[in-house]
Amino acid sequence: MLIRTENLTKSYDLGAVEVRALRGVTLGIEEGEYVAIMGPSGSGKSTLMHIIGCLDTPSTGRYVLNGAEVSELKGRALARVRNKEIGFVFQNFNLLPRVDLVANVSLPLVYHGGIARGARREQAVKALEAVGLTHRLKHRPNELSGGERQRASIARALVNEPSILLADEPTGNLDQKTGREIMAILDELSKEGKTVIVVTHDSNVAAHARRIVEIEDGVIAREGRA
Amino acid sequence: MNLLESIGAGARDMSTHKGRAVITIIGIVLGTASVVAVLALMRGGEQQTKDFFDEMGGLREIRITNEHSHSITQTAAERASERLTYRDAQAIRRDCPSVLTVDPEITRYFDVSYGDRTFSMKLLGTNRDYPFADNMPVAEGRFITDKDCENFANVVMMGPTYKEDLFGDEDAIGKTITVRGVPFEVVGIMQKKEFYFEGSGGRERNVLEWFNRSHYIPITTMIRRFTVNDRLDGLEISALSVEAVPALMEEANRVLLRRHGVLDFNVEAKSEQIQQRNEQEAFFNIVFWAVAFVSLFVGGVVIANIMLASITERIREIGVRKAIGASGRDLFIQFLVEAVVVTAAGGALGLLLGLGMVTVTDKVLNMPTAVTAGILIIAFSCSVAVGVIFGLFPALRAARLDPVEALRYE
C-alpha cells in the first residue's frame, strides 16, 4: 500500500472556537491507483490533500507514505519527503513568473540537491517534451496560454519522478476544451502506472478516476469505483 | 540542497530582480564609500603626523623645558633655582643610565659678516648630539664635535639658506666669517631640510625652514663668548631605545629635581605630542564615522524594508518553493544570500566611489590620504555585514512561512 492513513484528525484552534476540519479519516491507496477526492468547499478535502501532500501534519492519527511514517515529521524532513514523493499540480499553476520554463521545471531538482546544472536542464527539457512543450522551453509563464502553463506545471510535478501526482482542481482555471486536454494527460500518466490523486468538486473531472472518495464534514461519506 | 547551490540560486534569483536590486544598492554604495574615505583620511592624517615627527627626530626623544610658576609670588626655592643650565645637561649625561644623546641649546641673534655682506642671523649653540637628536644630515664638511666643545673652538656649521645668503655659490668650507667681530671658521654645511604639510596653506611653505636658517656653534663657545650665564633655551635628550623612554623620563626628573630643589621644569616625550595631535584629529574622525555609520545604517534599513516588501509580494512563490521541496533552511539561505549579494555588489561599487572620493580629497582639497588593502577589506566587510544583519529578519520570515497559508495567499 502506497498511502495509508488511520483516523486522521485536524483541528484549528481559532481562539473562541475550535474548527475540526478532519474528524477521523482512514484511507488506503495502492500504487498505480487513479483516485479522485471530492467534496464541497469546507468539507475538509483541501486539508486532507495538504496532509497527503506533506504540506501539513495531522493533529492525531497516523499517515504512512511509501512504507515510512510521516505524520511525525517536521520541517526539513517533511520538505525532503515532499520533494521526493509528491508532485503537485495546482489550480492556478503557480509557476515562477520571472524565469523560463526550463528553470521552472528544474526547480524540484535544485532542491533535491546533488544534481549538476547541466543534468537538471536535461531532465527538465525531457519532462517538458513529454507534455508537448518542446517549442516553449525559453518562454516565461506569462507568454503562454493557460493550458500550456498547466502542462508546464505537470512537467514540473513529474521531473523528480515522485511516487504520487497530486492535482488540486487542475482544470479549475481552464476552459472546458483545455480542461479535457489536461485530464487526458493525467489519464495517460495513470495508464503508464503513475499514482494519480485528483482533488476536485467537479464530478466530470472526478469521473476520469477509477475510484472516487467523497469527503463531507471531515469524514469519508462515500466511496465508489468506476 | 546544499549551501553552495542555495547561494547560486539566491544569486540567480537576484539577477532576475534587477530593478529592485538597484534601488536597494544606493545606500550601501554611499555607506561603503564613506567608510573608505573616512579610513583613508584617518590613515593619511596619522601617517603625516608620524612622518613629520620622524623628520623632526625619532620617537625616542624627550623635550625638557622650563616650567613657569603658576603662583604670583615665588617661593625661596624657586628664586634660588637657576632654571635649566648647561650644567644640568652635563649632569643628565653623567647620571642617567638610559640616556643616549643630550642636546642643550642656546639661541641668540647677532650680526654675521662675510666680506662686505652683513646680516642679522640666528646662532644656535649646541653640541655633537644636535644632528643626532634632530636627525640632520651633513651636506658638506662636518658638524660640531666634542673636541670643539672642550676647546671652546670658534667653528661654525651653516644652515643651507644662510650659506646661500653669505656665500651664494661660492665654496664656504674653510672660509672665515665674523660673528659680532669674532672670527669663526666654517667647518660644515647642513643638508636642506624640508617638510610640506598638505592642506594647511598649500604646498609652498616649508615648515622646517627654520632649521635651514641657522648657524650652529659649540655651546661652550656660545657661553664663553656671548652669554652672561649658562641658562639653556632648550634641552632635548633621547633614550637608548623607544622602550627606555619612560625610564629616562624618570631619571631626568630625579636628576633635575635634585639639582633645582623645586619642580620648575617639564619633561615631555615627543610621542606624547604625537598622541595629542592624533587626539585632536580624532574629533574630526568621529564626525566622519558618524556619516559613514548613518549611511550604512540607512542602507541597511532600506534593504530590510525592500526585502520585507518583496517577501510579501512573493509569499505565493515561497509557498510553491516549499511545496516542491524547499526547506525553511533553503529559503532562509536564499533570501539571506539575496541581501548579501545586493550589499556586496553595493560594497564593490562603494569601494570604487570611495577611491574616487579619496582621489578628489587628495588632489583637490589637498588633504593627506592613505589607502591600504586593510581599509578596502574593512569597508567591504562592513557592506557584507549590513547585508547579513538586515537580511536576517526578512529571511527568517520567509523561512517560517507556513506552506499551506502561503499557497492560499492572494
Structural features, described:
The complex is a heterodimer of chains A (226) and B (410). Chain A is α/β, with parallel strands linked by helices. In chain A, 35% of the residues lie in helices and 29% in strands. Chain A has seven helices and ten strands. In chain A, helix 3 packs parallel to helix 5 and helix 5 packs parallel to helix 6. The model of chain A has no long low-confidence stretch (mean pLDDT 89). Chain B folds into two domains: 3-53 and 277-408, no CATH class; 68-263, no CATH class. Helices cover 58% and strands 17% of the residues of chain B. Chain B has helices spanning 3-15, 18-56, 76-80, 86-95, 129-134, 146-150, 160-167, 209-212, 219-226, 245-260, 270-313, 315-323, 328-363, 373-400, 403-408; strands spanning 61-66, 99-114, 117-126, 138-141, 155-158, 176-179, 182-190, 215-218, 234-239, 265-269. The longest helix of chain B has 44 residues, at 270-313.
Strand content of chain B: 15-25%
Tally of contiguous helical segments of chain B: 15
Query: Helical region count of chain A?
Result: 7
Mean pLDDT metric of chain A:
89
Shape of chain B: elongated
- CATH topology tier name of chain A: Rossmann fold
Share of helical residues of chain B: 55-70%
Overall domain count of chain B: 2
General form of chain A: globular
Q: Whole-number average pLDDT of chain B? A: 83
Give me the secondary-structure category of chain A.
alpha/beta
- How would you sum up the major sheet of chain B? 6 strands, mixed, barrel
